[in-house]
């Protein structure tokens, strides 16, 4: 039997849906932060795609789940409670809707990647109130604050809150299409407003790192290795243009790397329970150290004629090469983590980029080797010609002139390759950022 409070919640939900400016979104309940606690993705109270509100009582807590759906086919929406910022051990209460218009609710729990019904799924759940209109579902129900089943968590404890929605088949929940995790633990006795945290922060961290290593570090490394003669006759602030471009790109990449780590770090290197998961933060801290060390080496670099110049060059090269290898490898690891919640397409997309980058490096390396061989042959020819010139005093023969001002070997081709490389880097960086920020794991 519907009580008065549940009836009021239902009426308010309907009013919010009817007054929404966008048929695919709704406005947050005005009671949020006043008489009810709320967790949502609302933008300043508007344009919500999901909202969970709660009102704690002496023996039970009333939950209201509101979310936008793409169709009126079989769907579910649920609220999950977890002691950690993962979905793996959450206690879940779900509202299921069939396209015939019938609704039901159930308690379940997550065991790793699997959602399992508790022994008595409806025990502790009551007063289900529901409606569906304009592609927006609204479910209100009560859940007892304590339960005899240990898999149905005690609501007097603080938990991270999770929202998830997806399709059902044969009355069973399928893999979620969307989920979100709160930025902090929730006290269900409070009326606080809680926002999203971990998923958005993880995606921001990944996006910034991708921009740093797929774009700036990538292009900066290519320029210093294969395009030193570029604008060699021009100088900016006392240094060759190629050097200033290289330094600018690498500095931006370093700043972005530091920023990406500041976005995600929470005082602990542990982000998972496996060596694979923990390899990512450890490798990230290693990369951070290398990124900080290399600019310091650059500032302290000795003069060209210094006896320590070879030592500097060796150290700078090793540190730079180490970071340039570890950077993309760590991105590969990061996009496969469960918390990243990124589609497998991003993994293959990144593989294609790295293959194209390696192919470009091979082509440029071949051209560089051929150029070095040509230079060696010319130097050898100069030496031989000078010796012959000393012997032939009658001046009947003279060494062949070599134009030292001509452009490097295959220079036009290399400039075209640089343009292609920059285009590929920018295109794939943009594509990866879009995949990381908008997609979910399959």
Q: What does this molecule look like?
A:
It is elongated and about 100 Å long. It has 2 domains: 4-196, Immunoglobulin-like, CATH 2.60.40; 201-438, Four Helix Bundle (Hemerythrin (Met), subunit A), CATH 1.20.120. β13 (235-236) and β14 form a beta hairpin. The chain contains 7 helices and 14 strands. The protein is 44% helix and 22% strand. α2 (198-226) runs antiparallel to α5 (309-334), α2 runs antiparallel to α7 (411-438) and α4 runs antiparallel to α5. The protein has helices at 4-18, 198-226, 241-264, 275-299, 309-334, 344-391, 411-438, and strands spanning 37-40, 50-56, 60-68, 75-82, 91-97, 103-111, 114-117, 125-133, 136-144, 159-169, 172-186, 193-194, 235-236, 239-240. It is α+β, with helices and mostly antiparallel strands and 442 residues long. The strands form 3 sheets. A 6-stranded mixed β-sheet has the order 8-9-3-2-1-12, with helices on one face. It has a 6-stranded antiparallel β-sheet with strand order 7-6-5-4-10-11, with no helix packed on it. A two-stranded antiparallel sheet has the order 13-14. The longest helix has 48 residues, at 344-391. The model is unreliable at 17-22 and 393-400 (pLDDT under 50).
